[in-house]
Amino acid sequence: MTDYPEFASPKVSELPKEGILSCASPSNIALVKYWGKRPVQIPENASISFTLEACRTTTSLKYKKLDKISDDFNFELLFEGKPKPDFKPKIQSFFTRIEAYLPFLKQYSFEIETSNTFPHSSGIASSASGMSALAYCLMLLEKQIHPNITDSEFLQKSSFLARLGSGSACRSIEGPITVWGVHDEIEASSDAYAVKFPDKIHQVFETYQDTILLIDKGEKQVSSTVGHDLMHGHPFAIKRFEQATHNISKLKDVLISGDLKSFIEVVESEALTLHAMMMTSLPYFILMKPNTLSVINKVWQYRKETGSNLCFTLDAGANVHLLYPDVEKDQVLDFIKSELVAYCQNGQYICDKIGLGAKKV
Ligand code: PMV
pTM of whole model > 0.85? Predict the structure, then answer.
């Protein structure tokens, strides 16, 4: 028995012998944040994100059918061409979680080769793009086994599997905007997978830009797994989950109307609240760096002086995502180059924008 019988997959006697399948899947940046979960990977509140375009993981899955079903999973992992044994435990536990939904896993040996478009250890979470890419590749194999699966079933199950690898990864399968977690005002929303934002978005968001300032590339002192856990018994947890629910309702209207002032208010408040939750956990911790705060103050000053719609958001780290409409691109990039690059480690930043999700390559 599985928790989600709708994603179970019937066993078949004839399996493809061998082959290779590849896909690319992007990272995403949450506007309303997911922070706090219940087993297994069920979010305490709904979250909503922009799917990105440039920050991507490309994964190829070489599969070879074994003569008999193995007792364990058989896979090798190559990251940017080199063996990566330290990623193996994460994939091992991912396979264990998804085996009930992909019963062929122990009938193959796999070689998983993966690479990122963004610099290694840039502090950009590779789990969203990496896990969504792997889930999508496995679904390409599932589709060879069960060719009748529809496109929407394919995407839904890819997101469902990606979630079991890393929560936020489920929001990377589709784009440009996805919602994960049950919310009364988001049609067909689910805790088990992400759905595309169901309404027509205002055209300003169709080409929204995200320039990621790489503030600190060091290892995070506290992983997001530990951070999520610290929301259990957190003194502000209940209020925080309610606030996130309320912010999704607000953002829903904003995404339809194109009201950028309200967009900025919700998005920046969400970023600071996420970090406020970290600072008020027990044990407490801080992932922002002095340069993160300097950039935030610069952005506020720039907005005040120019009337720009530039705003920031943060994920679980020190890097700053700068969000702005495409029409402001030239001015904002000038501002970044003249005023903000000084706060970036080795002057590095990545120009990204809203994108459409995973695809076969
Ligand atoms: O998917 P995880 O477990 O790495 O958690 C991600 C949490 C945040 O990036 C901080 C917020 C989010 O919704 O993406």
Answer: yes
